[in-house]
Design brief:
Radius of gyration: 20 Å
Distance between the termini: 46 Å
Number of helices: 14
Order of helices and strands: EHEHEHEEHEEEEHHEHHEEHHHHHH
Shape: globular
Strand order of the largest sheet: 3-2-1-4-10-6-11-9
Number of strands: 12
Structural class: alpha/beta
CATH topology of the largest domain: Spore Coat Polysaccharide Biosynthesis Protein SpsA, Chain A
Number of domains: 2
Helix content: 40-55%
Largest sheet: 8 strands, mixed
CATH class of the largest domain: Alpha Beta
Length: about 325
């Protein structure tokens, strides 16, 4: 059996897909297959892929029907044969030792997780840094770590991880098709069936920041989707208004406001939806680990909405 299946969904990434594939091809670890899913690209992505994979038998090009990244990844999962599965976005890349480093730590683990680098305007920054740990899950300690403001940003994305394909297949885990948040819901579902998690301080996955991509466009469902994530986590692991729940709830608020910062009317409508949520009054009575959360809640509850809008416009 192949050790690792690398799944790469592609839609109109002609500027970046070759660099992504070259980074995979240079891996020091060699026992892997690559499943590339072209989701109906209208640019030269497919031609570039076809040219690249010629005489590279471990690469397979599959065709999607422009149903989105969730369905493209699901096609990859259905065709994967590896013991482990990892995802790479077509505009990102991985360091030469990425697969080897993650695989070398998989012993007795159900999930291997690394940190993340961001590449923005020609500069590298460490976006999310986690510690070297072996976590028994779910324990109170591991739940507190994973759903903390320091670690959850890395646990809310599908990339930077090795997943056991057997767990995915046995429990029929798949990506839900929606505009926003399919990564988080997939990881949350997978976590339900894990007992041992290995986290690495190593950051060998590079996320290319591109303005104007889907993650930077306004969506009207961000508040509801992120709130649903919080509810699922609470249902599975009983956060019950703990500090972790406070962080998750405030995270939902901040993501919703960040999403709506481009237009005052959208921003105001988003606030109205937030302040009418049943849990909003409960969280106002909480004490916060992060002062920024307390400030945002104060501005919301005291209706300093224009000031909050200006803060988001200037800062973000």
């Amino acid at each position: 059996m192949t050790k690792i299946s690398v799944i790469i969904p592609v839609y109109n990434k002609e500027k970046y897909i070759e660099a992504c594939l070259k980074s995979v091809d240079k891996q020091t670890f060699k026992d892997f297959e690559v499943l590339i899913i072209d989701d109906g690209s209208t640019d030269r992505s497919k031609q570039i892929i076809d040219c690249f994979i010629t005489n590279r038998p471990r690469y397979t090009l599959l065709n999607g029907k422009h149903n989105g990244v969730a369905e493209a990844r699901n096609i990859g999962l259905k065709n994967a044969t590896g013991e482990w599965v990892t995802f790479i976005d077509a505009d990102d890349w991985i360091e030469d030792d990425y697969l080897e480093t993650l695989y070398s730590e998989q012993n007795e683990a159900d999930l291997v997780v690394s940190g993340l680098l961001e590449f923005n305007n020609g500069k590298y920054t460490t976006s999310v840094e986690i510690d070297d740990s072996r976590l028994r899950f779910p324990t109170q300690e591991s739940i507190s770590q994973i759903f903390s403001y320091k670690w959850y940003p890395i646990f809310s994305i599908a990339v930077t991880k090795l997943y056991l394909r057997k767990i995915i297949e046995d429990h029929q885990i798949y990506f839900e098709k929606q505009q926003y948040g399919e990564d988080s819901l997939f990881v949350i579902e997978y976590l339900k069936f894990t007992n041992n998690i290995k986290t690495l301080s190593y950051s060998g996955y590079v996320n290319r920041i591109i303005k104007g991509t889907l993650s930077h466009q306004f969506r009207d469902d961000v508040w509801q989707v992120t709130l649903e994530q919080t509810k699922r986590i609470n249902l599975n692991w009983n956060l019950d208004y703990s500090q972790e729940w406070q962080y998750m709830y405030c995270r939902s608020i901040k993501l919703a406001l960040l999403n709506a910062r481009g237009d005052w009317h959208q921003f105001r409508n988003q606030i109205k939806e937030i302040v009418h949520d049943d849990d909003f009054n409960k969280i106002q009575k909480s004490s916060f680990e992060r002062k920024s959360d307390a400030v945002i809640l104060f501005l919301l509850s005291h209706k300093f909405w224009h000031l909050l809008f200006l803060v988001y416009r200037i800062k973000f």
